[in-house]
């Protein structure tokens, strides 16, 4: 029966409220707070403080009628302020602009006797008042089959409607959980901000008639959401209704209406009259409230001692988080650690300072000086070590220099008046030039040592040189080595490889030669793909001429030098294939002083083997073989066939010379010249040796022959850049590799050790 509908809410409209005069309040004032004249304002009712702008009784006790309350005795000695006739005020907050009141719970119950729905629905109309429904509230619905709405259907301009449904399992309560209002037996919905009117509706399509045995009633109320602690018994019993006597706490925002701060400040009725107060606009923009500034507290709506006063934070250091000394100041305070302690007094307790400031400063300075000293000493030690190392190196260099006979050599050179003939390179220069004898720079390795291609910087100009690092020489060989050096220094001829200098500061002596870019004659004749490109007769003759001139120069007085190992591998080819005769390093100065002869099988004069006495004639023989090799393009000694000289004699005998000659030069139409050259060669290899021509004669004769065959084509292309170049060059500095045919004879005085190595 809807007849039970209670429209109590209408009674609560503020219009009605304002008509309630305060005349009765005075009479009902609690005796304890009573007394005094008309000017006295009561600021407390029961246990509730009533600060200005709210108040009772005479008009001036409240800011306006809108803030006027009544204080009524509820009948048993307690006094409760009532704002609107029956609405109980719980408390008032100036700072937040809140006033908490008791709101009435709407219900919707099945009445078993009348078999109809019994209900009570509340509405609030705060339109044009100084109150609005706070967002701290939520619309809470409790029930098992309930759909309830909150809304404004009256005011067309501000229409809204929201709501929620509370359900529970039809046959039981086991799934309901305490404390959680989330749809099961309880639901809640937020409301829009700044709301001033609402009504509650229950949807009559949802009723509890079918489950009235379990849950007869549904409830709905707008209440302070933080106050709701849902219990499952709310669904099955009237507990929710009875807890606060059919009511629930609700929060209202109150404010000074119709003006925002900006406007209000210039208004004569500006409410924030206290000093150190400030104006705060309400969130919904319906007005403003006043607050005390930070660090002050009091009532910003009144002047004088009740207004905003400075907070003495130092009175409550725990609350304001000061662990040290505190000094209050208007609106703020200082928190610091007392003298003799240190730390952040705002963050935590201060610590006792262990040492006075002066002492700490002293320690700091001392530590600084000490660490500087340590660093300085460490640097000194490092520098000292380095200098010791450098000195040791220097000493060692000098030692080596002595050991290798550097002093002796200088003397020998000085005696000859030839001081500048040889450069003594510094250890560092050589190490740098060869990148510390980097393996990548090796261009040859042999029995005597290793040859590196190196780049020397002389007066800033880079020069490519060949650096020969000898195997260590023993005491016995020292003199020979030095003699060798002296010989090499003396020789200066365009067709003889030049010794630039040496370095005796390393553990093994190092010789520095000019670098021949185009390999050796050996390579020119045999090293390249056959017949490509052909080496012309003219070129061959020129090479022969230059080689013979070089040898003639060596043989000539005053410094008579025997080469001892004339062979194509020792004929280097420099720029433009100019001949550079090399590797007479182990030659001897003259017959009498010879000690270490050497030779290569095939080029070695057979007569030499009789007595091991090296003479100029031996060189002539070797040159003869070389000349034959130049003309025939054949190696003198090959396992598979007879040796070249024998073949020559044979072909000369039976007139088949032309077959023996290199086909490259046969067609050149200078057969007469070739034959004359062959004839010269055969004289060179004649036995006995006494009939052989001298190198001087050979050179002159060859020169005449070459005159008849002018070198038309440019000399064979430079070979530099070809992959095999470096290996070939390596052979040229007198080093034996596995392929070499050099034979060494050492210790000839005793004739004891004779070792002959054949390379297959
Ligand atoms: C007396 O006051 C208490 C607490 O305010 C209240 O619960 C009780 O109902 C009151 N009794 C009477 C008789 O009004
Ligand atoms: C205040 O109490 C008196 C009697 O105790 C009662 O007559 C009056 O209606 C009450 N006023 C309000 C607003 O409840
Ligand atoms: C309850 O709701 C049902 C249908 O939802 C309806 O048939 C019944 O009449 C309602 N009972 C009451 C008492 O309104
Ligand atoms: C459901 O509620 C009823 C009545 O309140 C109670 O007797 C019963 O024990 C509850 N059931 C469960 C499972 O909690
Ligand atoms: C709910 O409000 C009442 C009335 O002010 C109060 O006594 C109670 O402590 C509040 N409960 C919670 C949980 O805030
Ligand atoms: C709720 O409580 C109020 C006041 O105690 C009472 O008038 C009302 O009938 C109760 N409603 C229900 C459904 O129990
Ligand atoms: C001291 O501590 C507070 C809180 O931890 C911090 O805000 C402040 O910056 C600190 N002051 C100094 C000087 O470190």
Describe this structure in words.
By secondary structure, the protein is α+β, with helices and mostly antiparallel strands. The chain folds into five domains: 2-15 and 88-254, no CATH class; 261-303; 311-354, Laminin (Ribbon), CATH 2.10.25; 406-514, Phosphorylase Kinase, domain 1; 521-751, Transferase(Phosphotransferase), domain 1 (Orthogonal Bundle), CATH 1.10.510.10. The chain is built from 20 helices and 37 strands. A six-stranded mixed sheet has the order 27-31-32-30-29-28, sandwiched between helices. It is elongated and about 165 Å long. The termini are far apart. The model is unreliable at 1-38, 586-596 and 717-760 (pLDDT under 50). The site of one 2-acetamido-2-deoxy-beta-D-glucopyranose has 4 residues, from loops.
List the SSEs and their pairings:
Layout lengths: L13 H6 L3 H5 L16 E2 L2 E2 L20 E4 L5 E4 L6 E5 L4 E7 L1 E6 L4 E5 L2 E3 L5 E3 L3 E6 L2 E8 L7 E8 L18 E5 L6 E6 L14 E8 L8 H4 L2 H4 L4 E8 L1 E2 L3 H4 L12 E5 L5 E6 L3 E2 L11 E2 L6 H4 L4 E5 L2 E5 L4 E2 L8 E2 L4 H47 L2 H10 L7 E2 L2 H7 L8 E4 L3 E10 L2 E10 L4 H16 L8 E5 L6 E5 L6 H7 L9 H19 L15 E3 L5 E3 L16 E3 L7 H4 L4 H17 L11 H11 L2 H4 L2 H4 L4 H14 L10 H14 L16 H8 L9 E4 L8 E2 L5
Parallel strand pairs: 27-31
Antiparallel strand pairs: 1-2, 3-4, 5-6, 6-17, 7-8, 7-16, 9-15, 10-17, 11-14, 11-16, 12-13, 12-15, 18-20, 19-20, 21-22, 23-24, 25-26, 28-29, 29-30, 30-32, 31-32, 33-34, 35-36, 36-37
Helix pairs in contact: 8-10, 12-14, 12-19, 14-18, 18-19
Bound molecules: 2-acetamido-2-deoxy-beta-D-glucopyranose (7 copies).
